[in-house]
Write a structure and sequence with these properties.
54% helix; 4-stranded mixed beta sheet; alpha/beta; Rossmann fold; 10% strand
Amino acid sequence: MSETAASFIAKSTIKAADLEHRRKINFNISKYNAVVPIGKSQFTDVNITRERAKNIKWEAIEHLDTYLVEFEQKITARGATVIWANDTAEALEAIGKICKERNCKTLVKSKSMVTEEIHLNDFLEASGIESVETDLGEYIQQLDGEPPYHIVTPAMHKSKEDVAKLFANKLGTKPDLTPEELTQVARIKLREKYTEAEVGVTGANFLIADIGGIAITENEGNGRLSCAWPKTHIAVVGIEKMIPSVHDLPLFWPLLATYGTGQKVTVYNSILTGPKQAGESDGPEEMFVILLDNGRTNLLANPTAREALYCIRCGACLNACPVYKNIGGHSYETTYSGPIGKVITPYLSGVDEYKHLSNASSLCGNCTEVCPMRINLHELLLDNRHEAVTQGTSTLAERVAWKAWMVASLNRPMMNMGNGKMKNWVVNKVFKGWAVHRSELDFTPKTFNEMWKEKTTSRQRP
């Protein structure tokens, strides 16, 4: 067992027994579940809409090389600079160089999972640059020294009382402030940083090929401020965020809002096509777009798993997953948690270290059911398990155990051997791994064949 797998099991075991944690998560997800139907009401047929969106992303991913080149040509024509980064090191090197050349002391950053993926804040701190998260949830997590808990809702595991105590400890505020008062405190603190920052960093929800633009979706306006106030704007974007046309946004923006937060449309939706142009009153003087691979082409190369690149990071699968709701986001120790994280992380970060994630699933299929892009997540989890075996990363004991189980399952005389007590002993005591984190299996005293024979015999009696 790898260290990451052992750590995952240890943390998830502790968190699964934390009833207060479960209460907070279930409360917050219940609020989400209550409003999603409101967002869905805007669609005449939401399933047709999902299918159409999936087809558009299929087109974008199948011809990703062409669309990326088109995007680069269009946005550079308006003065932006495109930087291609194969991995985390290249992305950080490019950002570090930009910041150094501009003598950056303070950097403001809007919510971006891809910058979490490359651990940008740690890199900037080590470089002597103050990096300030401007999304309220991310700001809370940064104050607490924690990574985001959820793709969309970074501080989902915290109650309003938790946040009030955190602000009191870190910012010296009163410990009983209301959510509205806490928001005002953060607003005042962050407004100062926007005006001080030499560089602003954002992610992007979509790359738009035909106009050479990036689309940013948010609810707080911090994304706009992060790229409008500083003189230099850096957008770090995964290459899979591509859509072919700006005319696709009227489809994707409502879908993302509905499945991400239950809104019909997010409050702020921006399209950026380069730095400030002649005659424009606001915007950055220069704009850089870093197109990040970082393992995404590993997914692209797999004809089955590449479907995971359709993901628009709405977080719906996390909210639906019974495993996520029990063990929480931090137990995964990955940037992307929940079902989508379990599918893509082995490709982004290595099968050897993260193959265990695909086994942390009930395979109930609820993640597939709620995905706006209709990604077959539960099937991809099974595919990841298959990949781990075919690549030789599974243990001999695991392969022997499943081989024995398969042979027995396909052989009726073997299935009928012994009584229920003997089978319970074999499964729960000999194969000890099953019952370590689960309740023991309890076989029926009689086999199905025996019960069926009794049933049919009784029917035949006069």
